[in-house]
Amino acid sequence: MLEVRNITKRFGNLVAVKDVSMSVKPGELRAIIGPNGAGKTTFFNMISGYFPPTRGSILFDGKDVTQVPAHQRVGLGMGRTFQITEIFPELTVRENLLTAAEVAAGQTLNMLPGRAAAKLAGDVAAEMMGLVGLTSKADRLVGELAHGDQRTTEIGMALAQLPRLLLLDEPTAGMGDEETYAITALIRRLHRDSKYTIVLIEHDMRVVFHLADYITVLDQGALLTEGTPKEIAASEAVQAAYLGGTG
Amino acid sequence: MTTDVATAAAPSARQPAVPHWARLVVIWGLLIAAPFWLPLLGGYTALAGRVLVFGLAAMGLNLLLGFTGVLSFGHAAYFGLGAYGAGLTLRYLVHSTPLAMLIGTLLGGLAGSLFGLLIVRRRGVYFAMCTIAFGQLWYYLAYSWNDFTGGFDGLRDFHREPIGFGPLTLDITAGPQFYYFLLAIFAIAVTLLGLLVRSPFGHTLRAIRENERRARFLAIPVERQIWLSFSISCFVTALAGTLYALLNNFADPLALHYSLSGYFVVMCVMGGMRTFWGPLLGATVFVVLQDYISSMTVNWMSFVGAIFVLVVLFFPRGLLGLRRQSGEK
Amino acid sequence: MQLVLFNVTNGLIIGAFYVLMALGLSLILNLSNVINFAHGNFLALGGYLAYTLSPTLGYWGALLVAPLLTALIGLAVERLMIRRVYNRDPVYSLLLTFGLAFVMQDIARYVWGPNGLPLGLPDFLSQPISAELFFVTWYRVFMVFVVIVVVLGLFGFLRYTRVGVRIRAGTLDLETVASLGVNIGFLRTFNFALGCFLAGLSGVLAAGQIGLNPNMGDDLLMPSFIAIIVGGVGSLIGTLFGGLVIGMAAALTTVFFPSASEAVIYAIMMIVLLVRPRGLMGEEGMMS
User: Fold this and answer.
1) Which of A135, A134, A136, A148 is nearest to A182 (CA)?
2) Is residue B31 a part of any domain in this protein?
3) Which domain holds residue B171?
4) Is the ipTM value over 0.90, yes or no?
5) Would you call B19 an interface residue with chain A, using a CB distance cutoff of 8 Å?
């Protein structure tokens, strides 16, 4: 589904990402890991369209999306969450997801409430709320919710836009054990039960090994290795990178 | 001849999804009965008319300010253009109230839409600065173009005309009749605004207000939505301006001055920016207060200024804007 | 020829005023993201204070002290009110300074009366500099001289002193400056007072030329805004340039279309917004 070919990113004289490739199959859950400064976020930003690579190409379902900006990739089927949760604080959970669903349904210019297409979007929002388990909190203001629920709302918003590929930027960042467990369980459900294709960055190795089908390891901007969780766990090179580096 | 247009238009235009209908009954009830209870409190019907006119202008502004989170401090420009458009039409073109309203609204609305295109990529204080300066441009034109606009003294020599619907004539020249006409227009405009705010389009505006970055990443075309919100708010405020000219049979440069823009903003903030009816409440309080204070002292400017300062420092959420509680719609 | 010279010098003088006023406004805007609507009122305050002080301190004393007093009052205003709205929605700072403007205007009217008042100048300043250039009094030369000195002083201050450098850095990235341990509160207060100092000085200078009245600041407020928009938000050099451009344009237009001189300022603003919205010297991204 997602094919990244030899992408490189330069910021002036600094080469943040060097010649990295990755191929993600439909239904796969791919984790991107690496010590600090490995270029994971830069790599991720190029996949999601935040900025284009200096060299290389990105194909999504066979289509070249290398130069397509982030907000247009949504229309192509990519959903994304942010490391620092970005939600609409003074709107309810329902309203957060509803807005996302309506936009994805092309309703941005619809100035009358209650039309059929908008109703369909409402159904999608309700469905996704149920999928992520927030139906009981539907009418709570998201700004008042716990961090974990806010992150879950954000995932819900991404889902409400009916993506085929979910890009999650450090989904468990800043969470305690209980919340981490809940988010991990959610992602697992999305992957195993709902068959979403997911690419995520993670620092928490327990999460990575619990969830990933396949792992890409970056180190100092280059691809160190990739493989199944078992292979990566056994890899000496990976251990060296984490322990030996300034990470 | 009292028209029943207002009574007919208001309740039947309600949408079934509107909550708090009791609140609405109170609001519309008060408005419809205003010419009766207002004089009992020492007010007068034209004051109620002023409240409606400024309330509509403020509610138009609030679509942009409170719902989209974009600050315009120059909305008096569109208000004044509406007023002058209507006045000039009645004076120089044709004695037709509907046409005057149409031309005034178009004048203000189109000026705003076109200007909005220029500045839509700007944000925050820079955007506000441009709106202020643009407003003053029109103020300057109005008071210096003496021959056409009557200059500093304002545009006179026009008045609202009866409206003919075939065999029926709506005589709105007298005060009380005009009030109900005003109320009818207000009701229609406010109903449409209400629908807009609840629509998917309205949802995108709130999203932009809450978190522009997130909105953009949901594939909301932020600049386009902001421009549309800006334009619609200009049209509504311009409509209010035409009604102002008709109410007073007079249009003056002060209707374009940035001080009026400031009044609109404080009405929104004072009543509660984040609520739908807040601006109307703010307009009511402000108009009544200003009327009262200016009749008591020549130093009314200090009081008005003090109101601004107090609202900002102590009531930023406004009268209706106590934090939205979870569970409320 | 003489007419052109007359108008060019006029342009310089008007431009100098716009520059002085706009620089103060720009300083406050750049660092604190606040549009000081009351800036014109600080100008008037400076002029009025000079009026009240000159019997005791003489013209030169008043010229020195009045702007300082104005800065002090600005400092008090900033500490009491403005600093409460810094990190909020810009609507609040705008409403606050707007209300402040109303109050200040009324106070001026109350204390000094609604009528115009003259500010006495030392005799030699009122003399024309030569028989041919009879329209140029020494006072006008003096004004331009003061503005040049002050502007140079300001830019020097911003470049070479510690506080000045911090203000400039804060304009670009206040967060980083704060995290370096600099006292942001002090910086903002100082910056605001500095802006008011410039406004007060403008007021004293203006008073010598056109006399005092409670509305005197209003006429300069809008051109200051436009100077900033034209020159580019976030750039003091841009504001300087913008002020000179519109001052010149206004003066030169008076030669050909006397009644359109104010209109031309607005026209320039619209053209800039159409063609180069970031301003002549503004930088992309200094907009929000």
Assistant:
1) A148
2) no
3) 5-10+44-257
4) no
5) no
